[in-house]
Amino acid sequence: MSNGRILSVQSHVAFGYVGGKAAVFPLQCLGYDVDVVNTVNFSNHSGYGRFGGSKADAAELSRIFSLMEQNELLRSERLLTGYIPSGEALAAVKEMATKLRKANPELIYLLDPVLGDSGQLYVAPDVIPVYRSMLPLATIITPNWFEVEVLTDVKIVNIATLRQALKVLHEQHNVPNVVMSSIPLKPWLKAVLPSRSWTPAEEASSDDDFLMCISSSRDGGVTSVVHAGRVPLIPGYFSGVGDLFSAMVVAHYNPTSPSILSDTKPLDTVSGETALSRAVSAALTKTHAMLKLTNDYAQALPEDQRLPTDDEADEKETNRRVRRMKGRELRLIQGQDIIRGVQAVTERKMELWHGFWAA
Amino acid sequence: MSNGRILSVQSHVAFGYVGGKAAVFPLQCLGYDVDVVNTVNFSNHSGYGRFGGSKADAAELSRIFSLMEQNELLRSERLLTGYIPSGEALAAVKEMATKLRKANPELIYLLDPVLGDSGQLYVAPDVIPVYRSMLPLATIITPNWFEVEVLTDVKIVNIATLRQALKVLHEQHNVPNVVMSSIPLKPWLKAVLPSRSWTPAEEASSDDDFLMCISSSRDGGVTSVVHAGRVPLIPGYFSGVGDLFSAMVVAHYNPTSPSILSDTKPLDTVSGETALSRAVSAALTKTHAMLKLTNDYAQALPEDQRLPTDDEADEKETNRRVRRMKGRELRLIQGQDIIRGVQAVTERKMELWHGFWAA
User: What SUPFAM superfamilies does the record tag this protein with (chains A, B) (predicted)?
Assistant: First the structure.
């Protein structure tokens, strides 16, 4: 069991599962030697309200990368970057990624441009231009809906603007593989999605019942091949889900898989899959199963540990919020057989979106 | 699969497997939720010659522990502490361990007093008195031969001084469980060891062929029950082995195991085992199998990656040493099924040492 090396650069928390704590163990379970550079060392994630520790500044990150380089240890075949606290620190990561890419054109770099969610930035705005300048280094990016809008300056409100945003990423920023996750299933999107395999119950569902994921691969420079997938929405706030998802995408991305026909034709016309859509199907399957396991556990907790979000009540008793967060930490340890693929779970499959680019 | 929580406080390196990198993944594989506090964040271990990064000072460690405490997150059932860079930082760990112990008398605390090896200290001497003062907090300690001598001020040269050192740890420092590892099989030791199950080849072996491990358990306050085990020595320097071993001991220590008769009688007279000797047998078995896997891999590397230790040649070409170190990093990822116990390996069993305390 050996899948080579991956360098993971993201946050570390002592308690709970976000950033590296959500990504590293699953990657190790899948046979990757993971080199782990921590961008912050915190007690727990910020959703708890009370948190702290230290941040690695640009100088510290550069020093660690430089020592690894001098020691001939900066030679992983894959790179995964997530939350980076500042534009300066991000620039240090960019410098390292540029070197890795130059030394190895086959490097598989999954860049998760962690900016925010649902209209809210949760990083310093100075990281945005640095992320934009890093996009051409990436093999795959995994922005959520909001992050796509920030990176492309395109507000996505219909199929035309969705196409436009993908075009900006593929053509202007030279990203070969884009995965947009956590997309609310708005009526306009539902109307254009390929729906041949939807059940009648799904057909009748409202836009609150599903989250969509869209992948677009144009390895080789041809017009991109687009896939879409959906997972049932599990209400409430869970942390680290995106970090786990990105780790699973980079872990399962295998561009040299024999049934992927050639570099210039990303689509396997028999299976209807691309290397990207396969990886995303595996990532959706495992991430959603883990989320369901976590939600089932959270629902079964005593009432005081699953109190609903209520800012006023939280204000009065700080640890009300803490207990809610604690009960919703990902059950990665208990669900490790899901990650390993030895426990059967419901498969979530990305479907080819025929005619996505047709006017 | 759920074994509860363990708080691990030790070093972190980006590349390779020492400290937390050697302990956390194996603990997670065995079903533990691991809370991970990093005492240093380094590029790689110091054996590479070139290394660096940042150290958490006492204030940073105290702040993280305090935030965890306020957030009701400092409630693990087990605690594992390893390399701590300074006396001040260690004092911060002591304060936290004291609180955990006070809040939970059943806490299982494995304290690995990382001081040095083979007559050489590799920490600041100011940690020694702090470690001594922490010994009464521990459930289990895992010093090597040299560390026992430093902690007890007893030079171990015969069975009488071996008894005396154990007495100091049990009676003066109130440690219920002591595991002494990496003991060279000197002639005087071989002469007194219980040897009923030694093969003729083992009988004829020299003192360079085996490393001994001695465990001594006096749960409940009775005279301690002593066990001894041996593993074939694998020549050459491997890092992180002690960190993996300690993690495996704390993971497999189960004082409430039904066949351990009672708290005041640590010895199961049917099996000849104590809760401690069982844990140490499992830890020896898995650690030695992992070391063998690593050594087999290292031996099969191209010649330039397995050059012998040669300080002069290393001096001339720094990365000669680096390449040797890199080829000897533990194969934890490739050997994860050994940790999980699903891959059959040679069992290493601790044997009851009848009459150890007899004059």
Answer: Ribokinase-like
> Is the model's pLDDT at B242 over the cut of 90?
yes
Residues B80 and B118: beta-carbon distance below 8 Å: no
Residues A274-301 have pLDDT tens digits of: 999 999 999 999 999 999 999 999 999 9
> B69 φ, ψ to 5°?
-65, -50
The angle, 0 to 180 degrees and rounded to 10, between the axes of the packed helices A127-134 and A87-103 is: 10
Mind giving me the DSSP string for A111-151?
A: E----EETTEE-S-TTHHHHHHHHGGG-SEE--BHHHHHHH
Chain B CB within 8 Å of residue A53 CB: yes
Domain spans, chain B: 5-352
State whether residue A301 sits within 8 Å of chain B by CB.
Answer: no
A238 interfaces chain B, CB cutoff of 8 Å: no
User: Distance between CA B77 and CA B251 in Å, rounded?
Assistant: 11
Q: Are A217 and A274 a contacting pair, CB within 8 Å?
A: yes
* Subunit contact A1:B319, Cβ cutoff 8 A: no
| Digit-coded pLDDT (tens) for B6-61 | 999 999 999 999 999 999 999 999 999 999 999 999 999 999 999 999 999 999 99
Q: Which residues numbered 63-82 in B keep a CB inside 8 Å of some CB on A?
A: 63-64, 67-68, 70-73
